[in-house]
Amino acid sequence: SATTDGRLDYDCLRESEAYQAYRACTGRLAGFDPVALTSIQEGLAFWINLYNALILDAVITFGIRGSIREDLGFFRRAAYLVGRRRYSADDIEHGILRANRRHFHPAIPFPQFAPDDPRLRYCLPRVDPRIHCALVCASRSCPPFAAFESDRLDQQLDAASWSFVNGGAVALGEDGSSLRLSRIFRWYRRDFGGEHGVRDYMLRYLKPRTARDILQAGGSPIEY
Q: What pairing do the DSSP bridges indicate for beta strands 222-223 and 179-181?
C-alpha cells in the first residue's frame, strides 16, 4: 500500500482485506489482560506494534488528509480499549514504553500516568531508547513501519536504529563540519542519556565516515 515515492497509500489500505481483518481484531483487545506479557521483550514488542497499528488506524478512521499536526488532539484521541481500559497513543508511548516519563512538550510538566493510575502496573521498568527508531507517528520523517517479534526483538531494534540513523535522521550541516539530527534526538535526549548519550548512540549505528569523524572529534555543533 505504498505510493511510488514511498509514502503509505491510506486510501488503498482502507479498502484492503487485511485492514478489514485488522479492524475485526481490535475489538478483542478489550478482553486481553496485559499482565499476560511476562517479559520485557514481550511487552516492548506488543506495545510498539499496537502503537504503530493504532496510528495507522486512527489516520484512516479520523480521515486525516494533510498532516497530523493539523489535529492537535490526535495522539490523545487515537486510543484502544485494552483489558477494558483506555490507552491513547500518548499513554502507550509516554506511559508504557517510556516508563511513565513526561511528554517532551514543555506545556505538559507531569508524567503521563498519575500515581494512582491502575495502568502503571504495565509500564516498562526502563526506557529502551531504540523505541524512538521503531515508533511510527504518520509523519514523513518517521522510521519505516515494521512488525516486531519478542524472540528476535533485540536484533530488530538494532536494525531499526541502523535504518533510521542512516536513512535520513542524520545529515551534514551546510559547512560540512557540523551535524543535523532529527528532532527526535532533541525531544527525547533524556531517554538517550543526554547529549553525550545521543552522540554515543549515533556512533553505535552511524555508517558515513565523515559524520562519525565529526562526532568522535567532540565539540562539534549539533543542530536539529
A: parallel
User: Could you tell me how far CA 184 lies from the centroid of its own chain?
Assistant: 9
Cell numbers standing for residue 214: 565529526
The most distant pair of C-alpha atoms in the chain lies apart, rounded to whole Å, by 56
Residues 171 and 144: their CA atoms lie apart, in Å, by 18
Q: What is the pLDDT of residues 28-63, one digit of tens each?
A: 999 999 999 999 999 999 999 999 999 999 998 888
Burial of 68 (0-12, 13-18, 19+ CB in 10 A): middle
**pTM, whole model, 2 decimals?**
0.90
- Measured in whole angstroms, the distance separating CA 63 from the mean position of its chain's CA atoms is 21
- Report pLDDT digits (tens) over 167-178: 888 888 887 778
Strand positions, DSSP E, 77-144 = 79-82, 85-88
Structure confidence by residue, pLDDT tens digits, 71-124: 778 999 999 999 989 999 999 999 999 999 998 888 888 999 999 999 999 999
**Cell representation of residue 16:** 484492503
Residue identified by cell 477494558 is 84
Radius of gyration of the chain (CA): 18
- What is the 8-class DSSP label of residue 8? B
Q: What is the pLDDT of residue 18?
A: 83
Other CB atoms closer than 10 Å to residue 220's CB: what's the count? 15
In this structure, what C-alpha cell is assigned to residue 125? 521498568
In degrees, rounded to 5, the angle at the alpha carbon of residue 59 between the alpha carbons of residues 95 and 150 is 50
- How many residues does this entry show for the chain? 224
Phi then psi for residue 89, to 5 deg, are: -60, -40
